[in-house]
Amino acid sequence: MSYTVLARKYRPRTFHEVRGQDHTVRALVNALDYDRLHHAYLFSGTRGVGKTTLGRILANCLNCEQGVSSTPCGKCDCCIGLRDGSFIDLIEVDAASRTGVEDMRQLLENANLKPSMGRYRVYLIDEVHMLSTSSFNALLKTLEEPPEHVKFVLATTDPKKIPVTVLSRCLQFHLKNISPRTIRDQLQEVLDSENVSAETEALDVISQAADGSMRDALSIADQAISHGGGALTLANVSDMLGTARVNEVTAILELIVAGDRNGVIEFTQEMAARAVNYSDLLASLQRSIHAMSMFKVTRQLTEESLVRFAQKLSPEWLQVAYQVLLIGTRDLRFAPDHRIGFEMTMLRLLDFEPVEAYPVSEPPERNPISNTDDSSSVEQESTKTNSDPVEVSAKQDHFDEQESRDSEVAETEDSSKQSEISFEWFDIVKNLSIPIELKQGLYKTELVEKRGENLVLRSEPKDRSFWTESKILEVAAAIQDFLGESCSVSMQEGELLTETPAQRFSRIRNEAVEHEKDLRDRRKRERQERMEAAKQELENDAFVQALKRDFGARIGEIRLH
Ligand SMILES: [Zn+2]
Fold it and tell me: Which DSSP symbol is given to 31?
C-alpha cells in the first residue's frame, strides 16, 4: 500500500472533523440545514487553516444524493466521488496558475449547462486574489447573474487584493489561525490513530512552529517521523526545525530559578560547543515567559513543561525577565559576539530574584541575599563588566552590605540592615495571597522589625483610616500562611524610613526605562560621531578642497548610508 501523507490522510471530510473554525462551521451548518444558501462564499485566512477543505465539504453537502444537509451520507456516488476526486461537478481551480482572462472564460463557459452528476456545479477557486483584472470582470458577470445550479467558493490568503465588486457579492468568512493547543490536540489524535509514539515536548514545538496552520503541523510531524525512524522525538523535531529545544529552555529556567550562576555559565559553554543560535534561544525564552505570564491570567498553558515554573515565578519577575530578554536580544548585535551577549543577559536575569520567597525567621547565612563565596565571585565579575543601570536590584543590596562590613561604619551597617529588611518585606508582600486592594495598601508600608512572633509594620499617617483592625488581622493570617508559622502583626504610624515595596517596584521599572534611554542616547551619539568623521573626511579631500577653492563650493547636508 502506498503511503499517504498525514495532512492528506487526515484532511477533514465532514464539518464535524474540522478543528479550530467553530464560528464558520456553525454558520455553514445552519445555512445548509435551514436552506439559507448563498451563491458565492469567500474564505480568507492564512495558509493551511482549512479554506479549500471547507469548500470541498460544502460542495459535498450541496450534492449528496440524500439531499442538501450539513451531514452528507458518505455512501452515495456523489459522496464517494468527492472523496476520491472523480466528482466532475466540483471544478477546482488554482488561480495562481490560471490568471488569464481566456482561462476564466473557458472555465465559466459551461456554467449555464446543468450539472452532469450532482445538484450543483461548484467552482472552487483557490488564491482568487491572483486573478487578472479582466479575469475578475469575467467572473463578475457570472457572479452578478448566477445560474440556479451554480455555487462559487473563493479562497484567498489576501482578501485586500480582491475588487470590492467581487467582495460585495460573496458571503465572506475569515478563518482564524488555529491555536497551538488545538493543533497539539489534533496532532495527538492523529498520531494515536497512526500508532506513532510522540514526546510531549515534540508536540509542543511543532504546534508552536506551525504558526496556526494545521497542514504545516501535520507536514512537520510527517517529516520528523520519517527522520526519527517511526517515532516523534523532541531531538528530531528540533534538529529539523533548527529551533532551540524546549528542554534547553526548561534547563536554563531551572538554573535561573535556582539562582545557579555557575550552572548558567556551564550551560552557555555547552550551547557554544553545539553552535546553538543564541538569538533563537533568547526568542524561545521570551516565548516561554510570555506563555507563563498568560498562564497567570488564563490558567491555561499549552507547554506542559512550563507549568511548574509558572507556578513558582511571580508575575512581576516575569515582566522584568521579559524586559531583560527583550533588551538582551536587541543588544546582541552590539555585543562582541553572540555568546557574550547571551551570557550577560542571563547574568542580568539572575540579578532579579523575586522568584520564591524565603521565611523571615531564617538565619542570615541561609538567606538568598547572602551567597556562597563561589557564586559571589562570579557575580562580582558580572557586575564589574556590565555597568548597565538595570543591574541595580536586589543583589546590589548584598554588596552594600559587604562593603559596610568592611568599613565597619556603624551607620552604614544600620542602613544595610534596613535595606535587607526592606527587601525581605518586599518579597513577603508580593507573595501574599490577599485581595489586591489590601496588597496595594501593604505596598505602602515598611517592616520595622520582628519581635518574636510579632511583625511590627509602619504606615504613613495619611493611611490611618485604611488600616482597620480587621484588615490587619487579614494581613497577619496571610503572612502566617505564607511563612508557615504563627505570627501576629501590629501597625505603627509614622514617617517611613526604608524603601517600601511600591518604591522598589517603581525603581526597578525606572531603571529599565533608564537603560532604554541610555541605549538610545548612545546610538544618537555614535551617529553624530560618524557624521562628524564623514564631514572631516570630506573637508580633507583634495578634490573637495579644489572645488571649494576654485568654484566656491560648500558642503551641504551629509547623508550616512
Ligand atoms: Zn451522499
Answer: H
Cα 112 to ligand 1 centre (Å): 24
Would 6-174 and 386-531 be classified into the same CATH topology? no
3-state secondary structure of 292: helix
Does residue 154 sit in helix, strand or coil? Answer: strand
Distance 14 CA to ligand 1 centre (A): 12
Candidates 84, 53, 13, 32; CA nearest to 153 is: 53
Integer CA distances (angstroms), 12 to 7, 57, 175, 498, in order: 10, 8, 15, 64
Question: Beta-strand (E) ranges in 128-241?
Answer: 150-156, 171-174
**Degrees to nearest 5, angle at CA 232 with 17 and 270:** 135
Using the mean position of ligand 1's atoms as its centre, give its distance from the Cα of residue 65 in Å: 5
Residue 22 pLDDT > 80: yes
Question: Which architecture characterizes domain 386-531 according to CATH?
Answer: 2-Layer Sandwich (3.30)
ipTM > 0.85, yes or no: yes
Task: Look at the domain 6-174 and name its fold.
Answer: Rossmann fold (3.40.50)
Length of the chain: 561
Ligand 1 center to 156 CA (angstroms):
28
The residue extents of the domains of the chain are 6-174, 180-241, 386-531
**Which stretches within 332-372 are classed as H helix?**
338-351
DSSP-assigned states of every residue in 484-546: TS--EEEEEES---S--HHHHHHHHHHHHHHHHHHHHHHHHHHHHHHHHHHHHHHHH-HHHHH
Q: Which of 242, 258, 268, 287 is nearest to 345 (CA)?
A: 268
Q: Which residues contact 393 (CB under 8 A, 6 or more apart)?
A: 351, 352, 353, 508, 511
Q: Tell me: the pLDDT tens digits for 247-280?
A: 678 888 888 888 888 888 888 887 777 667 788 8
Contact 120, 89 (CB under 8 A): yes
Q: Which residue has the higher pLDDT, 294 or 410?
A: 294
Question: Mapping DSSP to helix (H, G, I), strand (E, B) and coil, where does residue 176 land?
Answer: coil
Q: How many whole angstroms separate alpha carbon 552 and alpha carbon 31? A: 80
Residues 349 and 275: their CA atoms lie apart, in Å, by 22
* Span of 67-76, 151-160, 267-276 with lowest mean pLDDT: 267-276
Number of CB atoms found within 10 A of residue 92's CB: 16
Residues with CB under 5 A from ligand 1 (ion): 64, 72-73, 76, 79
Which of 365, 504, 493 lies closest to 422, judged by CA?
504
The grid coordinates of residue 47 equal: 495558509
Q: What CATH architecture applies to the domain 180-241?
A: Orthogonal Bundle (1.10)
Secondary structure (3-state) at 392: coil
pLDDT tens-digit map of 194-203: 999 999 888 9
Give the C-alpha distances (Å, rounded to integers) separating 44 from 30, 50, 159, 185, 249: 20, 10, 6, 24, 35
Distance between Cα 95 and ligand 1 center (Å): 29
Q: Are the C-beta atoms of 128 and 96 separated by less than 8 Å?
A: no
Within the chain, how many helices (H) and strands (E) appear? Answer: 24, 8
First to last CA, the chain: 60
